[in-house]
Write a structure and sequence with these properties.
The structure is a single chain. This protein is an alpha/beta fold and 490 residues long. The protein folds into 3 domains: 60-266, Rossmann fold (3-Layer(aba) Sandwich); 268-430, Rossmann fold, CATH 3.40.50.300; 436-486, no CATH class. The chain has helices at 33-45, 62-68, 84-100, 124-137, 150-160, 167-178, 182-197, 231-266, 282-290, 333-338, 340-347, 363-376, 396-405, 420-430, 447-456, 477-483, and strands spanning 72-79, 104-112, 141-144, 163-166, 271-276, 308-312, 318-322, 351-357, 384-389, 410-411, 436-442, 458-465, 468-475. The radius of gyration is 26 Å and the shape is elongated. The structure holds guanosine-5'-triphosphate and magnesium ion. Guanosine-5'-triphosphate (GTP) binds at residues 276, 278-284, 296-303, 326, 389-390, 392-393, 413-415. Its main location: cytoplasm.
Length: 490
């Protein structure tokens, strides 16, 4: 096995971002789709973590430190309301998240408490127990199932003696590892810096990671480290400089994304977005619906950069189908903020295909978590087609219960292909109708106009007459204008 260090280990906050071509393109990319997916998968598998980097960590900022080393972990959760099952499902999801982030989960602890302890998250007595578990298992990181305050993190670290991170940091870490596009990477980095800059503790205390003799040396850059400035202040300054830089870059990228979207709108191509909880099978379903080779993996957040594919209805109308980032309970607020421009694409879709994993223990909970985020980003009113996926693996009783809950849902299996044709038909029937009704007699030398009606409009009737093709159709405005000279006279 070849082991390649993660790119973040050579993280340089001042490195210039290279300009890469934008990743989302409508049409034209289907040809190499299959190979791209496989390549991506290979590459991702080669990006596992490397153990034992500890000696190289003297001059990294704290943010880098937290990003880099999350390897052998113990999970802790607090169960306050709901059932014990709920707490276990949540911890199981955290375990899946941490493994996706590349760590090995050694042990999980849940404490029943009214609410998390304001000082140490879990109760004080439980902290001693946690320390024992850490010592006996040789863990290097504790992951808490929740969002912790700076002081909770610090207190726990001081008492347990190893690094403590929370659920949000794990999700951010996964996003950081998997983002592909330049925009995606910048969005994740900004979210990460924002979250962590509020939680910097400064080296020292039990973790003892002073910059030591190298302060003023490499890493800080000329003029960044004045005499007497602490590592913490330097870190803060570097991080804030980096954050403003990222915000500026993102504003620029957002503009080009908007131009592209406006372009699609002008050509009135209907847009369908596939949304749903992470690991529900969105990418698999996109592959089934379009034959595209999008990365599918039994891992949370396999997809981080939205892919847009071209699709065609039975009668030739072109529309786009977009895969999206999966949602998860407690999606970090910073991430939703950073990904807002990407998520806005979802908000502008004409139809949503909401995929839910019918074989999951709590599909209803996943549906409502996703709908919560959809409402947040202003996508709550878009027509939604619910696709209950993994029907091949689901318990029939559970499926029946879910269908009572969601009477308009379509049951599908992206794996076997069952139900996919029906889903496609329903999605196509939900596409918005082009706004302008036309009746035209198009001379035979203008066949290209007839083809445009097929791809962009809905044909009501078509006959061949002596003078040309007689067409009744609903078409977008630009096409109606092009057809105006040939308006038929009754
Ligand atoms: N049994 C079964 N497994 C499925 C089906 N559809 C998808 N899967 C599996 O579910 C896992 C996740 O599939 P993806 O298509 O990557 O899911 P996703 O929703 O795109 O996931 P993220 O991008 O990680 O949010 C993979 O292991 C798939 O093989 C299905 O119909 N039946
Ligand atoms: Mg996916």
């Amino acid at each position: 096995m070849t082991i390649t260090p993660r790119p973040t280990s050579t993280y340089d906050p001042y490195a210039d971002i290279t300009v890469a071509p934008p990743d989302v393109e409508v049409g034209g990319e289907e040809n190499d789709a299959g190979t791209t997916g496989e390549f991506e998968l290979d590459e991702r598998h080669s990006l596992r973590r490397v153990a034992g980097l500890s000696t190289e960590l003297e001059d990294v900022t704290e943010v880098e430190y937290r990003r880099l080393r999350l390897e052998r972990v113990v999970l802790v959760g607090v169960w306050s309301d709901g059932s014990a099952d709920g707490a276990e499902t949540s911890l199981a999801e955290l375990a899946a998240l941490t493994s996706t982030a590349g760590s090995q989960v050694l042990e999980g602890l849940i404490q029943r408490r009214q609410k998390p302890d304001p000082a140490t998250f879990i109760g004080s007595g439980k902290v001693d127990e946690l320390r024992d578990v850490v010592l006996t298992t040789g863990a290097d990181t504790v992951v808490c199932d929740g969002e912790l305050s700076a002081s909770q993190l610090r207190n726990l670290e001081d008492r347990v003696g190893i690094k403590v991170v929370d659920r949000t940091m794990v999700i951010l870490d996964i996003f950081a590892q998997h983002a592909q596009s330049r925009e995606g990477k910048a969005q994740v980095e900004l979210a990460q810096l924002e979250y962590m800059s509020q939680r910097l503790r400064g080296w020292g205390g039990s973790l003892s990671r002073q910059a030591g003799g190298r302060a003023g040396g490499a890493g800080g850059g000329v003029g960044t480290r004045g005499p007497g400035e602490t590592k913490l202040e330097t870190d803060r300054r570097r991080i804030h400089a980096r954050m403003s830089r990222l915000r500026r870059d993102l504003a620029g990228m957002r503009k080009s994304r908007e131009t592209k979207r406006a372009d699609r709108r002008r050509h009135a191509v209907p847009a369908v977005s596939i949304v749903g909880y992470t690991n529900a099978g969105k990418s698999s379903l996109l592959n089934r619906l379009t034959g595209a080779g999008v990365l599918v993996e039994d891992a949370l957040f396999a997809t981080l950069d939205p892919t847009v594919r071209r699709a065609q209805t039975g009668d030739g109308r072109v529309y786009t189908l977009a895969d999206t980032v999966g949602f998860v309970r407690h999606l970090p607020h910073e991430l939703v903020e950073s990904f807002r421009s990407t998520l806005e694409e979802v908000a502008e879709a004409d139809v949503l295909v909401h995929v839910v994993d019918g074989s999951h223990p709590d599909p209803e909970g996943q549906l409502s978590a996703v709908r919560g985020v959809l409402a947040d980003i202003g996508a709550g009113d878009i027509p939604e087609v619910v696709a209950v996926n993994k029907a091949d693996a689901a318990d029939p009783m559970a499926l029946a219960r879910l269908l009572r809950h969601e009477p308009h849902a379509v049951t599908v299996s992206a794996r076997s292909g069952d139900g996919v044709d029906k889903l496609r038909a329903i999605v196509e029937s939900e596409l918005p109708h082009p706004p302008v009704e036309v009746d035209a007699l198009v001379p035979y030398q203008h066949g290209e106009l007839v083809s445009r009606v097929h791809t962009a409009g809905e044909v009501v009737s078509l006959t061949h007459e002596a003078a040309g093709t007689r067409l009744r159709a609903n078409v977008p405005e630009d096409l109606a204008a092009a057809l105006a000279p040939y308006a038929a006279r009754e």
